Amino acid sequence: MRSSRSFRKISPMCCALRVARSALCCALVALLLFPTQAAPVARAQPSPFPLTLTDDSGISATFAAPPLRIVTLNPGLTEITFALGAGSRLIAVDTYSEFPPEAKSVQPRLTTYPSPSVETIVGLKPDVVLSLAERDEDLAQIRRQGIPVLKLFPKDFDATVHTIQALGKLYGASDAADAIAADMLDRRDAVIAAVADAPRPRVYEELDASEPDKPFVAGPKGFYGELIDLAGGTNIFGDLPGDVGQVGAETIVQRDPEVIILTDADLPFNPQTPEMVAARPGWDVVTAVANDAIYPVSGQLYSTPGPRLIQGLEDLARLLHPDRFNSLSLWERAGVRGGYEIKRLGRYAPLTRAARGLIHSQRERRISL
Amino acid sequence: MAARAARRPPGPLVLGGLSVLLVASLLFAAAFGAVQLRPDDLVRMTLNHLFGARFEPTWRPQDEAIFFAIRLPRVAGAAIVGAALASAGVLFQGLLRNPLADPYALGVSGGAALGGALGFLLSLSFTFLGFSPVPILAFAGALIAMSLVYTLARVGGRAPIVTLLLAGFAVSAIMGYAVSFLLILNDRLQLNLPRVYGWLLGGISVTQWSQLGLALIMVGVALGGGWLLRHSLDALSLGEESAQQLGIAVESDKRLVIVLGSILTGAAVALGGLIGFVGLFAPHVTRTIVGPRHTWLLPAAALVGAAFLVLADLLARAILPPTEVPVGILTAFVGGPFFLWLLRRERREYRL
Questions:
Q1: Contact yes or no for B283/B88 (Cβ under 8 A)
Q2: CA distance to partner chain A, nearest, from residue B320 (Å)
Q3: Looking at the complex, does the CB of residue A280 fall below 8 Å from at least one CB of chain B?
Q4: A4 and A117 in one domain?
Q5: Quick one: A33 and A123 in the same domain?
């Protein structure tokens, strides 16, 4: 009953979304100004559906229409779904999905440890399940029930942008996705250009210091390490084998970081402060401690594969190269040092005007239909 | 029996030899680590530090910080934890007359894991004498689990050995699975899973000298107390009834042994998490050298455990620089094969 109602409510919107996806600039303007006239324009465009997508584990799924009942099992995928204006189509998310704030009200919230409940997911009759890290066996079981599953695990910035575009296609929101993608890439290039000829400070990025004498730190791979590189820093643990490692305090002091980034400042467990770091025995001789260059940040921005990754990159680049970033942006005015303010503002980094307009228009249309 | 005893080296000689071994391993562990420091620098540094010698520093200030503030406390901590685990192992093996008994036999592993997990779970941020919430709660969990086991095992004023062992096993299992249940219930712990897991595998974590002072006092007192009970322990190994006939106050001495073992294990848990194998392996190895008499066995096992864990911790720090390996993995990897070789070499039925 409930599903059919929501179907009726949403399906005209999907036509509009399809329009938006393939429309060029003029069609976009037409959509924004004269929504009712948009449909005929759309029919001139070839529909991408049935759409076949291949996920990151190499498995393909074919969709006859944009999915209306979406389950995400990872906060990053939830964020992307909301950013693409498809948040209202989420019928379940995982327990970690807490951004944007609307994500917190999606019910049910599925536990994913040690594995998700396949029964529950199948019982929800989703049109697609988005997973990042679940076991292939569990996902295969869901697929055997005729439910398409996309396992998307972007490992770096470009792959994240690509994932956003792929989901844009799937949701019939390619224009919004392309706008977000262009925005992320432009801003990334701007950061790279701004720090290109600057000296690269030695950076120590801490992920967890439950045991302060052997913390977990950012290695060269993964988002943490990539953002340090892009932001113009030298990761003092660029020699670790993976994206995260546990290292001894000896090595940290010996490698003498010039900047310390605490992504563990807002952890729910053992959160660290610059004062705590400075008070660790033997750390007083470290350059970053002596220069008071210890910055607490919001770890989510540095590691969640989603549209806010660019915010993390800009945030980090500013901390590493304060002299290279003079124009203060929206969220930065709330306070440069630290990610707390960024988190409190709570919204996405400014999208390009086109993307914002498009998402806005989709929201409007959904309400009116 | 007499012939075998005669072949054993005299106790004082063994203690002397083992002390030399411990000092050598301490020096060795202090000289090496994830970071290479020049040995001659270390000597000059130490002379400057301790005896006010005025060598011109040929080293960076970082090197001095690494050596004195980070490496030395860690090495000393490993020695204390090793000694505590080994002597707790001796006490529990003697008390329970079970070769499989180790410091965690009476529910400690489960209790400490539960306490530690709660420490990760609750957003506490306080320190007590240099200890953060996780070791403090693990220490409390260990002691609570042991007193629970002892209370549960008491029937009519007596705590039979078998009941103690079984109650210890059951309490440990229940608390261990409670940790798993907490992990499933709580997002926060799930997020922290690798850290909780790493902590459960054990690793010496000393961040302040004050921690060592406290642990040293606890371990010293408990070791001394255990040594005073050496005759009771010898008698208990003959069986409770025989011990009673020898005039030993069995129940009160048993309780004392449990209290002392708890203090030793609790101190070890607070500094090192759950480090497996040392407490099982050190007493057995030592027994093959000095025999079963607790007069020599207890101090000798403490020295063996200390030296062994100091070296295992050196490996944990230095084997894969800059990565730290949980020391529990290394105690099993290094200690396990050695123990098996020893068992094979003895070529006789095992006896406590």
A1: no
A2: 10
A3: yes
A4: no
A5: no
A249 touches chain B (CB under 8 A): yes
A364 belongs to a structural domain = no
Output the pTM of the full model.
0.80
A-to-B residue pairs, Cβ atoms closer than 8 angstroms = 110
pLDDT averaged per 10 residues in sequence order, chain A, 369 residues: 37 40 40 42 65 95 95 96 96 92 93 87 96 92 95 95 96 95 94 93 93 91 94 96 91 96 86 92 94 93 94 94 69 38 36 42 37
Q: What is the dihedral of CA B219, B225, B226, B228, to 10 degrees?
A: 150
Contact between A268 and B66 using a beta-carbon 8 Å cutoff: no
- Residue A237: give its domain's CATH number: 3.40.50.1980
- Chain A residue with the nearest C-alpha to that of B124: A270
CATH number of this structure's domain B18-346? 1.10.3470.10
CA distance A112 to chain B (A): 9
SS3 label, residue A351: coil
> Do residues A99 and A120 share a domain?
yes
Q: Inter-chain contact B69–A239, Cβ cutoff 8 Å? A: no
Residue A242, chain B, CB below 8 Å: the answer is no
Q: Which domain holds residue A162?
A: 48-190
Q: How far is Cα A24 from Cα B78, in angstroms, rounded to an integer?
A: 68
ipTM, two decimals, is 0.82
Tokens of B328: 């529990």
Quick one: which of B336, B193, B205 has its CA closest to B276?
B336
Assess whether A249 and A331 both reside in one domain: yes
Pairing of strands A51-54, A60-63: antiparallel
Of the candidates B74, B192, B323, the beta carbon closest to that of A245 is on B323
pLDDT tens-digit profile of B82-136? Answer: 999 999 999 999 888 888 888 888 888 889 889 888 887 776 767 777 787 888 8
Report the amino acid identity of residue B190.
Q
